[in-house]
């Protein structure tokens, strides 16, 4: 399954979908499931693809306000 790194925006408290606490303020590597894409669409998190680029390259960051 695809993995992404998610980080809360503006110190928001984001519950983990499994009910085991909240998303850490420094972010977390999680499975890319619809829950995180809904939080991204709401502007609650930023999302970075994990392992999408070779080591040493900056990963692409996406957020609701990014332009395409």
From TrEMBL:
InterPro entries: DUF2635
Domain of life: Bacteria
Protein name: DUF2635 domain-containing protein
Organism of derivation: Herminiimonas contaminans
């Amino acid at each position: 399954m695809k993995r992404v790194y998610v980080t809360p925006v503006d110190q928001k408290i984001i519950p983990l979908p499994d009910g085991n606490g909240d998303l850490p303020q420094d972010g977390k590597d999680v499975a890319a499931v619809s829950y995180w894409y809904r939080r991204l669409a709401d502007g609650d998190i930023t999302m970075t693809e994990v392992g999408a680029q070779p080591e040493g390259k900056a990963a692409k960051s996406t957020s609701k306000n990014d332009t395409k």
